[in-house]
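Lab notebook, bench 4. Still working through the backlog of constructs that have no structural model yet. Next entry is a single chain of 234 residues. Request: give me the structure tokens for it.
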Amino acid sequence: MSTKPTKSRSSKPKAAKSKETGKRATKTATKAKKAANRVARADVQVTHQAARFRDSPVMKALATLLEGADQPPLIAASAGTLAIGLLARRGDLARGGARMLASHLLATGAKLAIKHQFDRTRPSEALAHGHRFARGDEGGHAEKSFPSGHTAGAVAVARAASHEIDGAAVPAALAAAGVAAGQAPAGNHYLTDVVAGAAIGWAAEAVVGAVFDRFEQHHPLPPAGEGQTSNASG
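Model written out:
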């Protein structure tokens, strides 16, 4: 008595399931690409609209103020805070200044490393000559919009100060927010440049903060107010 060979029923359903999974993945990737393109277009359009009045007296004054978040001023502010803290034996100022300086230097290094990977036309230049955003390191200052170094430095320093210096949290946060908000109207950076810069600054300060916290467990600095003499006679 002969028996008919049995056919495998598992291979066909598996192949169909794999094909269906591939289709879903392709569809998801297509949707993600379209969403990214929409965000990119909106980023350029909104920033260009905001930068239209960059040459007005008010915006020129704002651009001058924004230079306070450039590398030399932030380094000077951080080093000055550290020096004052050490001289006055103010532990919060000493820790804050050191943390500010280290956070700013790390954020600057990370920002520069990323800038060397991309060329992006700054909004002020793009309004006249067109926008370009591509991989590469061929352009000069006008082609280094991504990411925002001013925002990265301001966020890193502000977070460091708010973590260590008594009463600095609110003023530091407002200052960093002002620096970030002014970049697009001044024609310096696109909104996505600002977001990327803020993320760099936040991450840099988080790394430095973790190192400082660990170091201070073994080498504590004088607490705030130590060394100050009392006016009361005893």
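Notes after review: Residues 224-234 have pLDDT under 50 and may be disordered. The two ends are 117 Å apart (CA to CA). Flag for follow-up if needed.
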